[in-house]
Amino acid sequence: MKRNKTVVIGSGRLGANIAAKLSDLGNDVLIIDKDGSSFRKLSETFSGYDVVGDATDLGILENEAFIKEAKEVIITTDSDNVNLFIAHICFFIYDVPNIYVRFSDTDKGKLIEHTTIRAIYPFILSIEDFMEKRVGGIEL
Amino acid sequence: MRIVVVNGTHEADFIVKKFKKERHQLLVINSDKKFGEYISSSNKIPVLFGDPTKAYTLEDANIQGADVLIALSENDIDNYVACITAKKLFDVKRVVSVVRNPKRVDLFRALGIDSVISSTYLLGESIKNESIIEDFIKTISIENEKIVITEIKVEPDFNLVNKKIKDASLPPHLIISCIYREPKAIIPNGETIIEAHDKLVIVSTLEDTDSMIEFIQKRVVPHEE
Q1: Helix, strand, or coil here: B26?
Q2: Rounded distance, CA A26 to CA B91, Å?
Q3: pLDDT, tens digit, for every residue of B128-141?
Q4: Three-state DSSP state, A89
Q5: Which of A60, A85, A93, A106 to mutate to test the interface with B (most CBs of B within 10 A)?
Q6: Which CATH number fits domain A5-137: 3.40.50.720, 3.40.1110.10, 3.40.50.10420, 3.40.50.11810?
Q7: How many inter-chain contacts (A to B, CB under 8 Å) are there?
Q8: What homologous superfamily does CATH list for B2-122?
Q9: ipTM above 0.95, yes or no
């Protein structure tokens, strides 16, 4: 089966914006969230698919989110535990080539060592951003 | 053994009581403050209040190298994360998770949880087993349960199939008193050949019932080619 889809799990502000951006760039994007009203956050230019469903259910991941056809998956639900669980499923069960996961708790990163899963930490990005913007930099 | 019990309500209390009685060393973590206090006071042991899916909670509980961790929360995914964290970051030897959704039993195993327990799954299995017993073995006892009459259905792969009773090397203390073979009942002798799908009515003593059932149900071992 051809892996040509981008699957975004969790349609919060981050997930919805990533989905819109990748869709604008010409990717075949599918976004899934268990709450249909969260798709309001998708921009009007979004031309991909939105699917209501629980992505921790293998049946839904396979048949509704087409995870076996995914070239990449971006996991951004509001729960670190759910994100870790889905990332492990995508890596260990479905061999998705590129997996990105958002974690609030940096400790979760230790649980994806020795895998190709890549983590995004808003916490670290905020600190870096702050240090960059701080008047006087690190010297003050 | 050092056993870690995380989350859960009455089942956690039950397990803690059982392990305490067996003199295991217990570490209890609960994210529900009220229930944690209840387990603590009813078993007279310390309970750590915290979220066991967080590495720092497990660190505080000092679970490093424990023999077993049992995760009992109602949330399957929290149980998964607590188990995986304990195994990967704290070298817990064996992690056990309860799951609400029986479809997750195989998935959790594939992802590295050593044992996965679903009460729905177990219920299904045990109903299945009971109905098998119901179908194939019926027992009645007479004379104050000293004599047992058992009815056993013969499956095609039983060792006994197509053997004469006298050649079947039946153990002593049992008699095949009747064979029910659609549509008739046969009172067998040594020359009678046992066929697949027969129902055997066997008289034995109570003590020999288990070994008798085991003997009758012996299956043909396939030859290795």
Answers
A1: strand
A2: 45
A3: 656 555 555 566 66
A4: helix
A5: A85
A6: 3.40.50.720
A7: 40
A8: NAD(P)-binding Rossmann-like Domain (3.40.50.720)
A9: no
